[in-house]
Amino acid sequence: MGRIAFVEDFINYRQLILDETEENKPCLVISAGTCGQASGANDIMRISKRYILENNLHDQISLRITGCLGFCEMEPFILVEPNNTIYPKTKMEDVPGIIDASIAGRTLEEKICQEDGNNRGYCSLEEIPFFKNQRRTLLARNQKLDPIRILHYLRAGGYAAFEKVISNPDPDWIVSEITRSGLRGRGGAGFPTGKKWKLARETGNGFTRKFVVCNADEGDPGAYMDRSLLEGNPHSIIEGMIIAGIAIGASQGYVYVRNEYPLTIKHMLIALRQARDLGILGKGILGTNIDFDIEIIKGAGAFVCGEETALIRSIEGRIAQPVQRPPYPVEKGVWGCPTCINNAETLANVPVIISMGADEYAKVGTPNNRGTKIFSLVGKIRNTGLVEVPLGITIREVVYGIGGGPQDNKKVKAVQTGGPSGGCIPESMFDLPIDYESLAQAGSIMGSGGMIVMDETTCMVDIARYYTNFLQGESCGKCSTCREGIQRMNEILTNIAEGRGQLEDLALLEELGKVVREASLCGLGQTAPNPVLSTLRYFKDEYISHIVEKKCPAGVCKALIMYTIDADKCTGCGLCRKKCSQGAIEGEPKKPHSIAQDTCVTCGMCYELCTFNAVLKTNREG
Amino acid sequence: MTEIPSLVESLVLRHGSHLIAILEDIQEHHSYLPEDTLKQVAHRLEMPLRDVYGVATFYKSFRLTPRGEHLVSVCVGTACHVRGAQAIVAELASQLGIKPGETTCDKAFSLETVNCLGACAVGPVVVIDGKYFSKVKATNVKQILDDVSSGTDKTAIQEDKRVIPVQVNCPRCNHSFMDPNHPIDGHPSIRVTISFGPKHGWHRLSSLYGSYNFESEHHRPLGVVAHYFCPHCHTELIGVSECPECGTTMVPMIVRGGGIAQVCPRRGCRGHMLDV
Question: CATH homologous superfamily for A158-360?
Answer without folding.
Answer: NADH-ubiquinone oxidoreductase 51kDa subunit (3.40.50.11540)
